[in-house]
Amino acid sequence: MKELQRPFRLAPGARVAVVAPSGPVPEERLQAGLDVLRGWHLDPVVAPHVLDRHGEFGYLAGTDADRAADLQNAWCDPAVDAVLCARGGYGAQRMADLLDWEAMRAAGPKVFVGFSDITALHEAFATRLGLVTLHGPMAAGVDFVKNTRAQDHLRATLFAPETVRTITSGGVALVPGRARGVTLGGCLSLLAAELGTPHARPGARGGLLCLEDVGEETYRLDRYLTQLLRAGWLEGVRGVLLGSWERCEAYEGLRALLADRLGGLGVPVVEEFGFGHCEGASTVPFGAAAELDADAGTLTLDEPALR
Question: Known catalytic residue: 249?
């Protein structure tokens, strides 16, 4: 797995577009997130359909076509320097095939930020655009609006990425050791659901795989991990970083499952790495060459996430 092209860092005055590729967005939280971005001396613009709700499927932020158009138009706007997702939920998979990836590739590299359901788009941006993306807090997310640690880490990644080349989690080794590879991953259930789709990577070979999820029963997590194993998707993975498992089983029980399914890979595995659906989540670039030290609980990037 090769490292991907790094977009340019942001500077004060940069224009950032906020889009909603997945679920409906609470207006109050969106406004609070925009205030945070303005406080960073950015110029946020809200895509036209961000506050829409699908007339029949209320779990979607408007129609598939409108959500896709918002993302594509924002990405292809030469005045926009970064695209931030407003929230996750569900819906990114429904609109990914409606995007004109050739037009988006022609628009050049930009910063893209999101997590959770946005995992499907992280995969697509890697395979279709060959671009480093940021797995981090979203503009209308509770963590982004209210948590200083999450805000500060994302802000540093956007403006001064050399200051956060080493991401320190406080996590501990489930399987000790060091490994080098290229970061990838996201929400476990989405990675399993993406298998066999046109935008998914063929596997995690050569990668440092970041996994997390939210609100899942343990047997479902078992199913997703087993599916990735049976499909051969985990063959050749170099290391695994485990993030948050909010609203899942108490972690002691979950740890046994993770050790059972991942311990046999023969690679370092670090747990409780502090990314995903947790309070104060770190921003992790995907597509970046890095070294994982499971014993120290650190991920050190070869180069800053952004140029």
Answer: no
| Whole-Å CA distances, 126 to 2, 44, 122 | 10, 25, 6
Residues 6+ apart with CB under 8 A from 170: 272, 274, 297
What is the structure's pLDDT at 265?
A: 98
Catalytic member of 3, 22, 116, 271: 116
Within 13 Å of residue 194, how many CA atoms lie on the same side as its CB?
29
Please tell me the distance from the alpha carbon of residue 258 to that of residue 242, in angstroms, as a whole number: 9
pLDDT in tens, 159-191: 999 999 999 988 899 999 999 999 999 999 999
Q: What is the pLDDT of residue 169?
A: 87
Residue in 49, 199, 277, 282 annotated catalytic: 277
Q: Is 282 a catalytic residue?
A: no
Confidence of residue 277 (pLDDT cuts 50, 70, 90): very high
Q: What percent of the chain has pLDDT over 90?
A: 98
CA-based torsion, 254, 260, 265, 266: positive or negative: positive
Active site residue 54: no
Q: Of 212, 216, 271, 272, which one is the catalytic site residue? A: 212
